[in-house]
Amino acid sequence: MRRTKEEAEATRLCIMSSALELFSEKGIAATSLADIALSAGVTRGAIYWHFKNKWDLFDGLWEHYSSPLTVLGAASASDDQVDPLGKFVELLRLVLVGAEQDQNIRRLVTLYTRETSVLSNDDMPERMRALENDLHTRRVRALENAIKKGQLPSDLDPEAASLLIKVMVDGLIVSWLRSPECFSLSERAGQFVESIIAVLQHGARKRTSG
């Protein structure tokens, strides 16, 4: 009996959900397609029907589960956006609130921090290194747009500011993941984001020669 498109899509989503859960718990390298198939209740053949390999599966689940974040990120970098900083603030809040309240976003950020928080860049998979560089580029574009619209200081260094944002957001998420009983990310998200924006308003200036 041939599967309907709806059944095929349901299987694909089930595979991605199981992969995201296992990737976030064990890491990508330590998770096999057999592990994912067992968790999803499908055969490895079903996985290969939808995805070429494990990294193709990663690309699919990242695109699917990060779509709310991607939409806000694109809006903050758009020339047509009248309030790029406001959209960027929404994005930061969604990341912090979602890390605590949304299971899929929590697993996504856990996976990201697990795979990119390594001391040696040689240990980072090429796909994750490319993703990290892409996210940095997107942050820089959003910050440049906010500078152009007069919402951030004209002498702000967007490259340095992007790196500071990553360090601050990653640090908050890792601290919460390790000790969630110490504070609530979602309850204090507004305060944290205001502090991040304050850093951008008063620091991370471009270097002057001389």
Automatic annotation (TrEMBL):
* Ranges annotated as DNA-binding: 32-51
Q: What PROSITE patterns does this protein's entry cite?
A: HTH_TETR_1, HTH_TETR_2
Q: What sequence ranges are listed for the domain HTH tetR-type?
A: 9-69
Sorted alphabetically, the keyword list is: DNA-binding, Repressor, Transcription, Transcription regulation
Supply the Pfam families for this chain.
TetR_C_2 (PF08361), TetR_N (PF00440)
**SUPFAM superfamilies (alphabetical):** Homeodomain-like (SSF46689), Tetracyclin repressor-like, C-terminal domain (SSF48498)
InterPro entries named in the record? DNA-bd_HTH_TetR-type_CS, Homeodomain-like_sf, HTH-type_TetR-like_transc_reg, HTH_TetR, Tet_transcr_reg_TetR-rel_C_sf, Tscrpt_reg_MAATS_C
Its Gene Ontology molecular function terms? DNA-binding transcription factor activity; transcription cis-regulatory region binding
Under what name is this protein listed? Answer: HTH-type transcriptional regulator AcrR (Potential acrAB operon repressor)
